[in-house]
Design a protein that fits this description.
Layout lengths: L3 H6 L5 E2 L5 E4 L4 E10 L2 E6 L8 E12 L2 E15 L6 E10 L1 H14 L4
Antiparallel strand pairs: 1-3, 2-3, 2-5, 3-4, 4-7, 5-6, 6-7
Length: 119
């Protein structure tokens, strides 16, 4: 039997990138972690320290090159889960994108096209 919650949990395929891009808390300028995967709905970060869940962050991600005139991607994300990585020195945290400028969706698509693993 298929769990409907699990079935609806991920509508879009996660895309892993060939770079672990740095993601900052734009309010404090602190490095939160590195991007593991991305969809237009959310991101997963890997970090050395646990990131509290159910917190809204203003995030800034450095891009590996300018994409459509953008050197960074800014968005508001809410941390929705966190767990130890397979490497116990690190933590994985999932963020839901709750506020993204419309033009940044196109940047995300280009980022995945240019730097994503293609299967």
């Amino acid at each position: 039997m298929v769990d409907k919650k699990e079935e609806n949990k991920r509508k879009l395929q996660r895309r892993h990138l060939i770079y672990y891009l740095r993601v900052f808390d734009d309010t404090t300028n602190a490095l939160l972690g590195h991007l593991v995967d991305i969809t237009p709905e959310g991101v997963m970060l890997i970090s050395e320290n646990p990131i509290p869940t159910n917190v809204v962050y203003h995030l800034r991600m450095e891009l590996p090159q300018d994409i459509l005139g953008q050197g960074e991607l800014e968005f508001v994300g809410k941390s929705i889960w966190s767990k130890k990585d397979v490497n116990p020195r690190f933590y994985d945290t999932g963020f839901e994108m709750i506020e993204v400028a419309q033009q940044h969706f196109t940047v995300i698509e280009q980022l995945v096209e240019l730097f994503g693993f293609h299967d």
